[in-house]
Amino acid sequence: MSHCPIMAGVGAPKLIQGIIGVSLLAVFWLPGGDALADDPGTNQVLEAIQEELRLVREENQTMREEIDLLRVEHSEDWMTEQRAEQIKGLVQDVLADADTRSSLAGNGLMAGWSDHFFLASADGRFLLRFGTLLQNRFIINHRDSTEESSTNELDPWVYGFETTTARLNFSGHVFGEDVQYRVSLGYGRIDPHHFTADDTTFGTRLYEAWTRLRLTDEWAVKVGLMKIPFTREFLVYEGRQMAVDRTSVDYRMGLGRTMGVEIDYVNDYFRGMLSYNAGSGALFTRLTLEPTPPWAWSKDAMEFSFQGRMEFLLAGEWEQFKQFTSPPGQEFGMMIGIAGGGLEGERTSVGGNADKPELWAGTADVSLMFGGASLFAAFIFESQSNLTPTIDSVNWYGAVVQGSVYLDQKTEWYARYEWGGPIEVEQTGEQFPTDPVSILMTGINYYIDGQDVKFTIDGGISFNPISQVMTINQTGWREEAEEHNAEFLIRTQLQLMF
């Protein structure tokens, strides 16, 4: 009986089909390997899987042609022990090369992990990413226990635990990559921008719910519940802040979230956002209505509201500026941002003769990433008129400076100073305080697994008394009497995000 030589990887038809099946399972089912985890995004993972499918189909066709040729030339059974060992080696090589975390199940449905858990169709037209953000804190606050004009003495120390936020986030695209969406919902403060100290009510919230249509590679339109494109500090996601929480200045002067439509433009060096919306719940612009969106259309309360932001990338990549930290080894990055806008409310008097409340705002910021260190600075100015019948105008000023440096690969030290508040007020009577906050914070981030699992501890001092209008309970600071000068704060937080 004669035997013909055979190339590695070619055998009996049924055996080859089995090898191909094992190869496909290896490509799509094995959970091990690091290639997918190192990819920058889920879309790249899907593209890699699709390319692997194409290569497998090509190899399959080549092997079938070789098998057909051998069948014609040799009708005898040519399987030998040596060739069987060669085929076993091929199977082992295929399994060793299957370093993807994706799986193929059902009718072409792929699932896996790449910064988030995801589900996707094999052709890449449908994608669902889902994740969560959990922030659990322990806070200690110390302030003077009595006022000079009071005989009541209260405990100067207040401390306790808090689950600040627990969210579920869903995002992705449908019918192709041009139709994108995001839904973020969970449990937290109903209104962290509340204009009194009583902003401690927790409940379920809808944080974001929008659809984004990509018109070209540069242009897109976003519709729904979203962040107002104004301050950079507020646009950075809660899970990617430097300190335990944002500054009190940004909570009070940042315009928060709204419902409306936004036009986006981006290229390699410039990014712009223009929003026309239902207004903001910040700065007392919705005194008699719900301060936190979503709102019913008939509760809009705005004649008009628009804001725009422009960002200029002078060095680095846009991806760097999704957060404030700059890990060691990252390339140098620099971004400058400017933003502005205005809104006008409905008339508040029954006769309709009162002037409509207005707000005009502007901000500028600069961000530097040094690869192991970072620097951020921002300035905000906002002018309100016709706020109430007794408050003619209020001019707000705010400034934030923040810097950090890595002590080793996982430990980062940071410091931050904030100043601001309602500095200039024209009013009838003395009911609107004008004391600005002046707060210095410093702390340590320990990145257990990057931003996904992070422990933060920081402490700070408030040099000025914190007035009622500048008290943001979520930040840990409490309202303080004018005759008191200093308040102290220690915060710890364990964050889980994926």
Would you mind describing this structure in some detail?
The chain contains six helices and 19 strands. Helix 1 packs parallel to helix 4. The chain folds into two domains: 13-108, no CATH class; 125-497, Porin, CATH 2.40.160. It is globular and about 100 Å long. The protein has helices at 13-29, 35-38, 42-73, 81-97, 232-235, 248-253; strands spanning 103-105, 109-114, 116-121, 127-142, 157-173, 179-189, 202-214, 219-227, 257-266, 270-277, 302-315, 333-345, 358-369, 373-388, 391-406, 411-427, 437-451, 453-462, 487-497. A 16-stranded antiparallel barrel has the order 4-5-6-7-8-9-10-11-12-13-14-15-16-17-18-19. The longest helix is centred in the first third of the chain and has 32 residues, at 42-73. It has 498 residues and is α+β, with helices and mostly antiparallel strands. Strand 3 and strand 4 form a beta hairpin.
- Report the structural category: alpha+beta
Largest sheet: 16 strands, antiparallel, barrel
Distance between the termini: 62 Å
As a whole number of angstroms, the C-alpha radius of gyration is 29 Å
Principal-axes geometry comes out as: globular
Percent helix = 10-25%
According to CATH, what is the topology of the largest domain? Porin
Number of DSSP helical runs: 6
CATH architecture of the largest domain, please? Answer: Beta Barrel
Query: Care to count the β-strands?
Result: 19
Note poorly predicted spans: 1-39, 98-102, 349-353
Q: Give the strand order, joined by hyphens, for the main sheet.
A: 4-5-6-7-8-9-10-11-12-13-14-15-16-17-18-19
